Here is the input.
Amino acid sequence: MSGGATQRKTTPSLDLFEIPRYVKTLRVADASRASRQVDVAHAATFLIAMGVLSPASVTQEHVEAYVVSLESSGYTVETVEQRVASLSGYFTWFIRTHKPAKGHDALAHPVRRVRVSHMSSCGDCVADDGAQSGHNLKGACTVRDARMSHWGVAAFEGSLTASAANTRSAYRRDIELFAEWLLDTAPAVTPQTVGKQHVRDYLSEMHERGATSRTLARRIASLRRYFAWAMRTKMAESDPTDGVHTPKVNGKLPRPLDEETVARLVSTENEEAPEWRRARDRVVLEILYGSGLRVSEVCSLTVQSVSSDMTTMRVMGKGSKERVVPLSEPATIALQRWAQVRHEVLGEAPEVALLLSSRGHPVSRRDITRLLDEACERAGIAGGTHPHALRHSFATHLMDNGADTRSIQELLGHSDASTTQRYTHVSKERLRLVYSESHPRA
Here is the structure.
């Protein structure tokens, strides 16, 4: 074999990781696919620098060293967890597609037993369902707040007193992502030295990764809010977002399910699941559609949220605005059924949350998304749907059957009537479709 051939075989390269081939197998949105490609490439570059010759040579010790490097470099808790998760998915694919030769042992998964040092032990960051695969970014955490300390993201989040918890968390995460992009591309840049070109380059890269105009507009809004705060607190002398163009966001009409499809979806049950899970899942689906709740509102329901006769619920919505919503008859029946078996997953400590996971913790967004995906599969809904689509369906079906806009606004908890007006447009589109398909002179 020639010296050149030997060199090509032994010199580590990103090509050996076959990242583009892996990314093509992902059944996710383009932006998510691009994000995972960046995550895996970042890890592969580090592993190659450690002397790893190929993915098959990666050990648990290599991955643990990568995690230590991320945490010591100042990356946020969520980013460390996200990059480890992306790397885990990559090695699951690699092991599945690279079977060992006959007589050789199967490759060991180098990420499966790796635990992020902070996430695995912090009660403020661990997921609501107790799993180490998720986290809660709305709690106060000393370690998390210490990351990106020169950006003051914790203080910035604390200044957003008029915003809802989810909004504050989203603003903070947008700033953290921008700061981490600078950490990768221009480590010496600080809030005081960020320039317009940095912002433009960042937005350009986000666009290339597949970010929508809506996402870009939100990132710009977050940066403007942050730098306005940074100038007030003397952390920055100028606003680098001045003159940055915000892309036009085309308003998207809701895409509700038709009444027959929703009825099929909310009534389906997994016959092989235990009774408590079937009862709980039925309650979630009936409430999402029957009362039009947001998924976050469902997760935050308590036993005291439901009236004694189970005909209404008291819901805490966005901006800590409380409203009372009616419960449909099927939802009431589902709640009575759940009340009889709730004790089966209730731990030793009393839990006030209405809906619980198998561990006795409050259900999380991930739990609800998972049960909805399973329900869509059983109901034969191609492509599935998402929890908010049931809220859209609730409002649209009310509008189609004669409910007035003001009543729907109250039921949905919209502070601005213009938000509710979207459902008027949806109904008009349906009327136009019926007219064009049914009238002989349409």
Summary: The beta strands are 312-316, 322-326. The radius of gyration is 25 Å. The chain is about 55% helix and 0% strand.
